[in-house]
Design goal:
79% helix; 180 residues
Length: 180
């Protein structure tokens, strides 16, 4: 039993080291400044996809999926971004903070795709700490898109409360300046 437990721990440590090295190699390709940015991004998407397929249960896999989502979104591939963010939300190794970031990313994809009900539901799932101001601002944007300026004003003002000097507060302030 002792040898079995030791062997298993050794095996798990070796597996974690192998997966970490594989992830590191993917990250190196993304930062390879000898390639143009388009080639780096294409290579990174391919490499991250290979990583998640080869290491579905790694604790690094949700991070790889997040990177795939961001690359897909930057490439204007909403369906791939949506799939990757949802995978992070469903993955057993995702931390709560990573799930919050995936929820936020997915909400933005849904909002930009004009799926306002889905976007609103996702924004509302974000915890108030630390996302309260961003949540209020984002819900304010949706209210504006639904032609509800009074609700938008209330939400933008809520985003400003206690957040003076933050980027989100500045966005909210600018949005308030354009409301009637």
């Amino acid at each position: 039993v002792i040898i079995g437990a030791f062997g298993y721990r050794y095996y798990r440590a070796a597996e974690e080291q192998r997966m970490t090295l594989a992830f590191f190699q993917v990250e190196q390709h993304l930062g390879d400044d000898t390639l143009d940015i388009k080639t780096r991004r294409e290579s990174a998407r391919k490499d991250y996809t290979a990583f998640v397929q080869a290491n579905p249960d790694s604790n690094l896999t949700p991070i790889a999926w997040m990177n795939l989502a961001r690359l897909a979104w930057d490439d204007k591939d909403a369906d791939a971004a949506r799939k990757a963010y949802r995978t992070v939300l469903e993955h057993g190794q995702s931390t709560s903070s990573l799930k919050d970031l995936a929820r936020l990313g997915l909400a933005k994809v849904e909002e930009e795709s004009n799926n306002l009900d889905a976007a609103e539901a996702l924004y509302r799932q974000l915890p108030d700490d630390p996302y309260g101001a961003l949540k209020a601002y984002s819900l304010g944007r949706i209210a504006l898109q639904r032609n509800k300026p009074k609700e938008a004003r209330r939400l933008f003002e809520q985003a400003l409360q206690g957040n003076t000097g933050s980027v989100v507060a500045e966005w909210a302030r600018q949005s308030l300046d354009f409301l009637p």
